[in-house]
Amino acid sequence: MKRFSLVAALFAALTLSFAASGGNAQDYPSKPITLVIPFAPGGSSDLIARLVSEKMTAALGQTIVIDNRPGAGGSLAAGLVAKAPPDGYTLLFVAAGHAGIGALYPSLTFDPVKDFAPVTHVASSPIVVVVNQASDYKSLQQLVAAAKAQPGKLNFSGGGGGATVTNLAAEVFRKQEGLNVVNVPYKGSGPAVMALLAGEIDYDFDALAAVIGQIRAGKLRALAVTTKARTPALPDVPTVAETVLPGFEAASWAGVLAPKGTPEAVIARLNKEFVAAIRNPDVVKRLGELGVDPVGSSPAEFGRFLTSETERWGGVIRDLGLKP
Questions:
Q1: What is the CATH classification number for the domain harbouring 213?
Q2: Does residue 107 sit in the same domain as residue 187?
Q3: What are the residues whose beta carbons fall under 8 Å from the beta carbon of 224, sequence distance 6 or more?
Q4: Are residues 297 and 227 part of one domain?
Q5: Are residues 51 and 83 both part of a single domain?
Q6: Rounded to whole angstroms, how far apart are CA atoms 272 and 25?
Q7: What is the CATH number of the domain that holds 33?
Q8: How far is the C-alpha of 185 from the C-alpha of 176, rounded, in Å?
């Protein structure tokens, strides 16, 4: 009898261990999945996340619910997901700024890298410098000249502000050009673009996906892109490097993270479906129209990329002495 009890106990322990390691992933997902976005609706992250998640619903057999949680440079949403149950039902759609929140907010209650399990690198996108179509500035050279001639008068936004790579690119540009301009933070690209359209700010550094519609509609004017080479989406728009600041380069990106401890089998299923959606011809076409390059990496590849980006942008934040 004792021997039977011991065998039963061992079997139960092995069963629980197998389930905890993701052995029951064939039942996943059995309910809707929440995808938390750290920015307000209407920005590039929001657009890309909705486009990709729509294609995943049929394959997963469950709805992906978009939950916009802007605030604190993305750390509000990240903290929420970091503390969520590691079961694959709460995910974080990160932008490049996630790589800098640890340096910008040193008192975070979570680690932006260690407390997450990478799922996939979704896409990358150029950052573009834009002004209102009614602006007098027809080139980046004119904008820089005006800023230097009128110290403290011009103001700008860096998309979502805080540790977002759009804001960091804008701050690096400001410092390297020696500009005395005022940074006006917003809770995402959507509000920043609305402010630019309303004439509340003079220029904006933003992800191309967030502004390309307004550029094509003739409401915003693109002065330059921050990538090393020109983007096929705007072939006539020069790079920052070829206009006023040789060597300048920055790009926006997006990816998906799950809470640390999420079973490997669940991560594998999510990766499979996210990559399939990212490479869907309809999605590729739509992303191309937005000036976004689809990626769709393995979890390990995205993990290495995130670590590298965190080191890079964390160093930029510390060098610039940026504060929340």
A1: 3.40.190.10
A2: no
A3: 128, 129, 140, 237, 238, 239, 240, 243
A4: no
A5: yes
A6: 13
A7: 3.40.190.150
A8: 20
User: Tokens 């509340």 appear where?
Assistant: 200
Domain with 261 in it: 2-124+253-320
> Of 227, 251, 275, which residue constitutes the final position of a domain?
251
Torsional class of 92: left (φ above 0), alpha (ψ -120 to 50), beta (otherwise)? beta
Contact by Cβ (8 Å): 38, 95: yes
Q: Can the peptide bond before residue 29 be classed as cis, meaning omega within 30 degrees of 0?
A: yes
Taking the model in full, what pTM does it have?
0.80
The number of angstroms, rounded, from the C-alpha of 211 to the middle of its chain's C-alpha atoms is 15
Q: Are strands 33-37 and 64-68 parallel, antiparallel or unpaired?
A: parallel
pLDDT tens sequence for the chain (324 residues) = 444 444 444 444 444 444 444 445 678 999 999 999 998 888 788 989 999 999 999 899 999 999 999 888 789 999 999 999 999 999 999 988 899 999 989 899 999 999 999 999 999 989 999 999 999 999 999 999 999 999 999 999 998 777 788 999 999 999 999 999 999 988 888 899 999 999 999 999 998 988 999 999 999 999 999 998 999 999 999 999 999 999 999 988 999 999 999 999 999 999 999 999 999 999 999 998 888 999 999 999 999 999 999 999 999 899 888 887
Number of domains composing the chain: 2
User: Which of 251, 266, 298 is where one domain is finished?
Assistant: 251
247, 130: one domain: yes
Count of CB atoms situated within 10 Å of the CB of 252:
30
Task: Assess whether 244 and 257 both reside in one domain.
Answer: no
